[in-house]
Amino acid sequence: MPRATSTRRVDIRTTPARRTRYFTAARRRNLTLSEWARQRLDAAADAELAMAVPSEPTDADVTAALEARGALRGSRLRARIAALEETPWR
């Protein structure tokens, strides 16, 4: 699926202290300030609009999903679940 390119700006006014807090929070998540703000604004808009369809995943979302892919391979999780599902009356 082709990724949408951000072409519009949304400027907001804030205090230097708030900007520093936002920047620090974004950095802790390894995101740019723009990515961090977009994620939070998308979540807030989805909640306000009670959308059934979630917003488009960010590059950080896609990266995290790809890193998690295959993480359980070799863990025998399927066999452990099957063993737990076995009951005496089966």
- Sheet with most strands: none
| Radius of gyration over C-alpha positions, nearest whole angstrom | 20 Å
Question: Multimeric state of these chains?
Answer: single chain
Q: What class would the helix/strand composition place it in?
A: mainly alpha
Number of strands: 0
Q: What is the share of helical residues?
A: 40-55%
Distance between the termini: 44 Å
Average predicted local confidence, pLDDT: 84
Strand content: under 5%
Q: Total domains, how many?
A: 1
Shape assignment:
elongated
Q: What string gives the helices and strands in order?
A: HHHH
Low-confidence stretches: none
Continuous helix count: 4
What does this entry look like structurally?
This protein is an all-alpha fold. The protein has one domain. The chain is built from 4 helices and no strands. Helix 1 crosses helix 2.
Which helices and strands occur, and which strands form pairs?
Blueprint (H helix, E strand, L loop, with lengths): L15 H13 L4 H17 L9 H10 L8 H9 L5
Helix pairs in contact: 1-2
Keyphrases for this structure?
90 residues
Summarize the structure.
With 90 residues, the chain is mainly α. Helix content is 54%, strand content 0%.
